Amino acid sequence: MMLRNGRFGTYSLCGALGLVLLVTACTTAPVSGRRQLILVSPEQSTALGVEAYQQIKQQTPIVRGTQEARMVERVGAAISKVVEGAEGFEWEFTLFRDETPNAFALPGGKVGVNTGLFDVAKTEAQLAAVLGHEIGHVMARHSAERMSRDMATQLGLSVLGAATQSQEMVGLVSNAATLGVSLPFNRSQESESDRIGLIYMAKAGYDPRAAVDLWANFAAVGGERPPKFLSTHPLPEDRIERIKQHLPEALAFYKGN
Fold this sequence. Notes:
This protein has 257 residues and is an alpha+beta fold. The protein has helices at residues 2-24, 42-59, 67-81, 124-139, 142-164, 167-203, 210-221, 236-255; strands spanning 26-28, 35-37, 62-63, 92-96, 103-106, 110-114. It has a four-stranded mixed beta sheet with strand order 3-4-6-5. The chain has a two-stranded antiparallel ribbon with strand order 1-2. The radius of gyration is 21 Å and the shape is globular. The longest helix is centred in the last third of the chain and has 37 residues, at 167-203. GO terms for molecular function: metal ion binding; metalloendopeptidase activity.
């Protein structure tokens, strides 16, 4: 009986904690207006982002002074100027010598571009589509949202483990959460950043239609891809269709320049 009462007290405490978190930690993503659960403060996520960025800069060669490096800095500066709600951010746009066609963003306004991206981003406007997308991740606080989601998932699995005393059940639920929540959630963040990025690049004076060309280039590169339901990113073909749906919204800002 004492054990039951103890478990009930644990469930009640966790339930109350979860309710408090849901009530106090909800924010709204820019442009989309999607409600978010974020348990990490802006100060905490920025500190983590800056630390991670410094480590990357120490481990990966930085390219400076080239035409491509100057383009990254120029486009990044142009887009970051039109972003609202970034007061206090110390934006930094760095070109890294890495042949992988990729870019990344970290909290606090730290954005990295690999040299390999220029094999796909053929024009300045296409680069703007990439940087707008990455800045969208920063402004929507997607990194903090992912950390918060993982924290909430771990809390739920801990409660389940205490309730069932079954590690097998916890493992099954954990796998289901990855396929049913984590991966689709990541894909939704990518799509959200595409939409936000289109508006940012349009406001900065870049034609948002270049994003369609960019992802057509990615699709042409091809290569082996994971099954759609296991991918953390939308397939290029799906991405292009969603981008086309959001183009009228973005073009309204572009035509206003």
